[in-house]
Amino acid sequence: MNYTTQMDAARKGILTREMTIVAEKEKMAPEKLMNLMAQGKVIIPANKNHKNLDPEGVGEGLRTKINVNLGISKDCCNVDLELEKARYAIDLKAEAIMDLSCFGKTREFRQKLLAMSPAMIGTVPIYDAVGFYEKDLKDITVDEFFKVVETHAKDGVDFVTIHAGLNRQTAEKVKRNERLMGIVSRGGSLLYAWMSLNQAENPFYEHFDRLLDICETYDLTLSLGDGCRPGALADSTDACQVEELIVLGELTKKAWERNIQVMIEGPGHMALHEIQGNMMLEKRLCHGAPFYVLGPLVTDVAPGYDHITSAIGGAIAAASGADFLCYVTPAEHLRLPTAEDMKEGIMATRIAAHAADIAKNIPGARDWDNAMSTARSKLDWSKMIELSIDPEKARRYRESSKPEHEDSCTMCGKMCAVRNMNRVRDGKDIQLND
Description:
This protein is of the alpha/beta class. It has 19 helices and 10 strands. Strands 3-4-5-6-7-8-9-10 form an 8-stranded parallel barrel, surrounded by 7 helices. The N and C termini lie far apart (76 Å).
């Protein structure tokens, strides 16, 4: 039996290779996975042309996945350096990479990235359009916008961020509801400007079926972007954000009618107490579609530490229903991240995702922690380091400050509670003063 997309296959009861791999990874029965995919609650972004993809599932009942942003820009256009960062991100177990390239040899970079990456790859085609055509934004035509999307799909990109929910009605809502930070989404701001300059509707909203045609051809997953995501705590959960979310829910249903996989993108900056409600709102308005969030960053005052503000929000968001976390690095709001910034962001986001998986009772999530606790109870330092989320850092810290006795560390020495409880259980003396 033939199928066009992973969603189409799930609805026809066809177990694809990608589904088999994801079901095994997630310890989920294939039948249950197919049922969730048929409902749109789980997606497997897997472009037909991404030949070396190691597929991952995103959505209800699955491990929380993380995404890494990178790419070339006018100020930093070193293709080899960004490819090296991509390899490093994959080594650090990121499940997805978004290529946000907006200048220079963007297609060369994208094709090289796809050729070497088993991780799923996402892009924001409108970023590429400005540099690709080398013309003013207002002069880019509808056909040219769609040509860029199709080029990305043909190259093998697994998902694309399209800000189709920022239509003229939503744009009017933005004008009537003044924000402290306005529109902070790069793609959203570009479309808002194009609409204003041309007095025209958002082409991706007006010609949504044309977008779905491309998605169907290549099994391209739609990541419906949040052009009105809040860029400040003061702007979160306002009329603009909610208005766009309602439109995204309507577009989700249209995509599902064509068996196109969809995820929804979300905030942004948001106070702690608003996060759970926002996760519930998205799941309700967007009919259970997977939710992909940037953070949320829970305070605006920590440049240089926004990997922490993001991880705090990300853990709460994922525990409350978000399915996919976009990493944030210490360089957020300041500059393009270095490889070390990227590592800090990945580790913070992986910790947040794992903490949420424990809260959501994802199968096997606690096993890792239990194994670590067992090693700690035995003061098995080599096993503890092996089980660490970042073994290299754990080993470096351990070796940088050697204790007098190998069954302790330099924090507590012979007063180590675990060491002494083990000695008591074994009938040995404590001997703290020797």
